[in-house]
């Protein structure tokens, strides 16, 4: 039991450090293009998924909704995104990528893909597939455990 707890903690530390360094590669490439990672995430979401309600963008890119307005404002100022009111519900506004934003990502995305590939190049294609499968399994189980189980060792009310 103690050995399993130690291995779980070791996995957490190794996974966190690996994630931190892979993200460092991605963030450095994003900053090279004059955006911050959140701006890039919003722009990439709109590029690949089309117009999105402002209220839903945060959950799709793992960001608090309070920052979305600020990020969309900055992208709008750069001419990469525009707001469009909903035709069905005037309380809802959509963010959509502009042609300039699409051209920006058409140019930036290939080097971003290469930066990510470089960051994970220590793994063979087969190892990448194994990692994807194992991390997906881990993430889905952690999500499910978070939703329906009490925290182990915590005092219950």
Keywords:
157 residues, Arc Repressor Mutant, subunit A, WH_DNA-bd_sf, single chain, 6 helices, mainly alpha, DNA-binding
Shape category: globular
Report the average pLDDT across residues: 90
**CATH overall fold name:** Arc Repressor Mutant, subunit A
CATH architecture descriptor text: Orthogonal Bundle
Spatially, the strands of the biggest sheet line up as 1-3-2
Order of helices and strands: HHEHHEEHH
Low-confidence stretches: none
Instruction: Assign a percent range to the helix content.
Output: 55-70%
For the report, how would you describe the main beta sheet? 3 strands, antiparallel
First and last CA, distance: 26 Å
Instruction: Determine Rg (CA atoms, Å).
Output: 19 Å
Number of discrete domains:
1
Strand share of the residues? Answer: 5-15%
CATH superfamily: Winged helix-like DNA-binding domain superfamily/Winged helix DNA-binding domain
Keywords: DNA-binding, Transcription, Transcription regulation
Pfam family, one: MarR
Protein name: MarR family transcriptional regulator
GO biological process, one term: response to stress
Compact overview of the structure:
Residues 8-140 form the HTH marR-type domain. The chain is built from six helices and three strands.
Describe the fold and architecture.
With 157 residues, the protein is mainly alpha-helical. The protein is built from six helices and three strands; from the N terminus they run H-H-E-H-H-E-E-H-H. A three-stranded antiparallel beta sheet has the order 1-3-2. Strand 2 and strand 3 form a beta hairpin. Helix 3 crosses helix 4. The longest helix has 31 residues, at 2-32. The relative contact order is 0.10. This is MarR family transcriptional regulator. InterPro entries: HTH_MarR-typ (IPR000835), MarR/SlyA-like (IPR039422), Tscrpt_reg_MarR-type_CS (IPR023187), WH-like_DNA-bd_sf (IPR036388), WH_DNA-bd_sf (IPR036390).
């Amino acid at each position: 039991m103690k050995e399993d707890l130690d291995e779980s903690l070791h996995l957490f530390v190794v996974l966190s450090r690996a994630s931190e360094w892979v993200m460092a590669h991605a963030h450095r490439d994003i900053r090279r293009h004059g955006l911050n990672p959140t701006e890039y995430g919003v722009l990439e979401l709109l590029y690949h998924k089309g117009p999105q309600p402002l209220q839903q963008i945060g959950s799709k890119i793992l960001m608090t909704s309070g920052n979305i307005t600020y990020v969309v404002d900055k992208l709008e100022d750069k001419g990469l995104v525009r707001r469009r009111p909903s035709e069905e519900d005037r309380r809802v506004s959509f963010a959509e990528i502009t042609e300039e934003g699409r051209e920006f990502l058409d140019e930036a995305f290939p080097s971003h893909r290469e930066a990510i590939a470089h960051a994970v190049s220590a793994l063979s294609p087969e190892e990448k597939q194994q990692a994807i499968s194992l991390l997906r399994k881990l993430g889905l189980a952690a999500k499910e455990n978070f939703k329906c189980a009490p925290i182990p060792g915590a005092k219950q009310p």
